[in-house]
C-alpha cells in the first residue's frame, strides 16, 4: 500500500523460475508473430513498439501468474478482496523503438482525482534480462496523483511539464523472474531501444469492483477453460464466455504514442 500510494510502483525479485519465464517468452513470440499477420491483431504504441491483448488460455502460465501469492496479496491489499482480472497481454518494444512521450495509460478516474484511491493495477513480468540499451521502462514516482487541465485527453502532460518528470525519473532494469505492480496512472514512458533485441513484457490488468476497465478489453474464455480453473480464480475474472475463441481486435489504442516523443 505504501509503495503503490507513494511511488506508484513496487516489485518482487525472482518471483518466478527462469525456465518458466523462458517458456512464456517462447509462447509470446509465437503469439506476436501470429498477431502481426492478422488485421487488428497488434496495436502500435509508437514506432517499432506494439501491444497485443491475448486470450488467457493461450498462455500456459496464466494460472501460475494470477495465483502467485504476491500477485494475490497485492491485488487484495490495494483493490480489495473482490478484485477483478480484466486483461492479459504483452508489450513488445523492438529494436529501433524511440522514446515515448511521458503519459499515463488512461485518464485518472474520479475515484483517484477526488477520492485519492487507486482502483486498478498493472502487473508487468519481464520476459528478458533488461539492459540499459534495450529501452527500459522509465517512471516518475509519485505522479499517479498529478492532475492538470493541460493534460491532453487526460493522459499526456504538456512538454513544459517534462523537466519535473525527468528530475524524478527512474529506469527499471528487471531480470527474468522479476514482477512489478504499478498504477497505470503513474507518469511513465518506454525509452529508446538501441539494442538488436526486443524487450517483451507480459501484462496483467486488475481492477477494483466498478472500475470498468474491462470495457477497454475483450477477455474471452472458453467453457472448457473456465471449467478447468479453480473457483478461487474464476471468481476474480471478468470475462466473456465463448464456445470457440474469437480473434481479438485490439481496442485500447493510445493515439498520442504513435509518433514517439517529438
Any key phrases for this structure?
7-stranded antiparallel sheet; 3-stranded antiparallel sheet; Jelly Rolls; 21% strand; 262 residues; alpha+beta; 12 strands; 23% helix
Under CATH, the homologous superfamily reads q2cbj1_9rhob like domain
CATH class: Mainly Beta
Q: Helix- and strand-based class?
A: alpha+beta
Give the biggest beta sheet: 7 strands, antiparallel
Query: Judging by the overall fold, what is the CATH architecture?
Result: Sandwich
What low-confidence regions span 5 or more consecutive residues with pLDDT below 50?
none
Order of H and E elements: HEHEEHHEHEEHEEEEEHHE
Helix % is 10-25%
N-to-C CA distance = 35 Å
Instruction: Could you tell me the CATH topology label.
Output: Jelly Rolls
- Please state the CA-atom Rg, rounded to the nearest Å: 17 Å
Give the spatial strand order of the biggest sheet: 1-8-5-10-4-3-2
Number of strands: 12
Kindly state the mean pLDDT as a whole number?
94
Domain module tally: 1
DSSP helix count?
8
> What is the beta-strand fraction?
15-25%
Shape: globular
Topology:
Elements: H1 2-6, E1 9-12, H2 18-36, E2 43-46, E3 49-53, H3 62-66, H4 69-79, E4 84-93, H5 110-113, E5 120-126, E6 137-139, H6 162-168, E7 170-171, E8 179-182, E9 188-190, E10 201-207, E11 220-222, H7 223-228, H8 231-234, E12 240-242
Parallel strand pairs: 11-12
Antiparallel strand pairs: 1-8, 2-3, 3-4, 4-10, 5-8, 5-10, 6-7, 6-9
